[in-house]
Amino acid sequence: MYVAQPIEWTDRGVVMLDQRRLPTKEVHHTYTDYREVARAIREMVIRGAPAIGVAAAMGVALGVLHCSAKSLRELRGEFDEICAVMAKTRPTAVDLFWALERMNARFTELSIARVNDVSTIRQGLIAEAQQIHLEKRATDEAIGRFGAELMPREGQVMTQCNAGALATGGIGTALGVIRVAIEQGRKLHVLVPETRPYLQGARLTAWELHRGGIPLTLITDNMVGHFLQTGKVGAVVTGADRIAANGDSANKIGTYQIAVLAKENNVPFYIAAPVSTFDLTIPDGGHIPIEERAASEVTHLQDIRIAPDVHAANPAFDVTPARYITAIFTERGVARAPYIDSLGALAQSVQAAAK
Ligand code: MRU
Q: Closest Cα to residue 56, out of 2, 112, 108, 97?
C-alpha cells in the first residue's frame, strides 16, 4: 500500500514534500539551512505533530552540520540558538519540544563522552535525528496494531484533519490504525471531513487514502453531525497534538465538536497518538497553548477572497475534554479513563524501556 514520505534526510540536505501544493502537485524542496527548515514548519510545508518533531530534529542536525563552530563551547552556543529558532515555529504540538529535548539530551551525552570532538558530536546529532525518524515509523506501526483491535469489523469510520503518513513520517497515527485494520481484513470506509480552514482533510487525507486504495467519502465539516446521527459510523479516530495529564487532548480545530456529537450518538471516539504527545507537566487542557493562525486562511481559499475584509478568528486547534474520549491508542498500549493513572503508567513504561 502506498505510504507518502513527507521528509527524508539525504546527503544533499533535508528533503520535504511540499504539503501546501497537494493534492494537485507533488513538489519537493531540499533544505540546507536550518532557518529554511524552521520556515517550512511555520509555513506548513510540513505539518502534523510527529512530522513537525522529525523536521525540528533534522533542522537542528542540519544547523549543527553547517555551523562554523570550532570548539565544543562554540558548538553549544550555536546549538542553543538553533533550538531556540526551531522552538518558535509552532506552539501547540508538543512533539516539537519533545524532539528538541531529545536532541539536547544527546548533545549533552556526547559532549560528556567526547570532550571537544566537534565532528563526532555533529555526526552523533545527525544520527539522532535519523533515529527519531526511524522510531516514529515503528511507533506508528505499534499504535496501528493496538488501535486496529478496536476498529469495527466493517462499516464507516470517521477521522479529522490529516493524521496520516504526511503528518508523522511513518504510516500515520489515526490513519495508521485504519490502514492496519484494513490490512487485517476489516472492511472499512473512511468519512473524511474537509477540515476548514486549511483543508487538511480534503487536500491531504483524501489524497493519502485515495493513493493508498482505501475507500473514502469526503464530507464538509458541517455534515459531521448528520453522518454521526444517520451514517452508521462505527468509530471516530483522530490524532492529537498535545495530551494533558488528565487526558484532555488538543487536536485540529473541529475535533471537539466531533467528539461531543460522537458521544451524543453513542459512537466511540478514539485518539491515536504517540506517548511523546503526552504533556504530563500540565494538569488539564486549559494549559495547552492554542496557535492562532493568519485570518487570511479563513477569508481566502487558495488566495481567492471568499469573505469581505472583516475580522476573522483562526484558532488552529481545540481541546477535547477527556470525558468524551473512549480510549487513547499509543505505541505502549491503550489508555482508558481515569487517564491521570493510565497515561502516567504508559509514560513510565516508555522511560523504563529506554533505560
Ligand atoms: O496544523 P496541523 O496540520 O499541523 O495539525 C495537525 C493535526 O492537528 C492533526 O489532526 C493531527 O491529529 C495531529 S498530528 C498526527
A: 97
Which residue from 102, 126, 120 is spatially nearest to 10, judged by alpha carbons? Answer: 126
SS3 content of the chain, % helix, strand, coil (to 5): 50, 20, 35
Residue 335: beta bridge partners?
A: 328
Position in ligand 1 atom list of the atom nearest CA 195? 10
The pLDDT, as a whole number, for residue 148 is 98
Separation of alpha carbons 214 and 210, rounded Å? 6
For residues 23 and 2, what is the distance between their CA atoms, to the nearest angstrom?
15
Q: Which residues are catalytic?
A: 241
Closest ligand 1 atom to the C-alpha of 160?
10
Measured at the alpha carbon of residue 139, what is the angle toward residues 289 and 273, in degrees to the nearest 5? Answer: 35
Please tell me which residue, 232 or 201, carries the higher pLDDT value.
201
Q: How confident is the model at residue 1 (pLDDT cuts 50, 70, 90)?
A: confident
For the CA of 47, the closest atom of ligand 1 is: 4
If you take atom 6 of ligand 1, which residue's CA is the nearest one? 48
pLDDT tens for each residue of 270-304: 999 999 999 999 999 999 999 999 999 999 998 99
| DSSP code per residue over 92-114 | S-HHHHHHHHHHHHHHHHHHHHS
Q: Whose CA is nearest to atom 15 of ligand 1?
A: 163
**Confidence grade of residue 115 (pLDDT, cut at 50, 70, 90):** low
Nearest to 57 by CA among 7, 111, 118: 7
Ligand 1 centroid, distance to 241 Cα (angstroms):
6
Q: How far is the CA of 109 from the centre of ligand 1 (A)?
A: 32
- Locus of grid cell 504526511: 166
Q: 3-class DSSP state for residue 300?
A: strand
Q: How far is the CA of 172 from the centre of ligand 1 (A)?
A: 11
Return phi, psi of residue 261, to 5°.
Answer: -70, -30
pLDDT for residue 116: 67
How far away, in angstroms, is 168 Cα from ligand 1 center?
A: 9
249 Cβ below 6 A of ligand 1: no
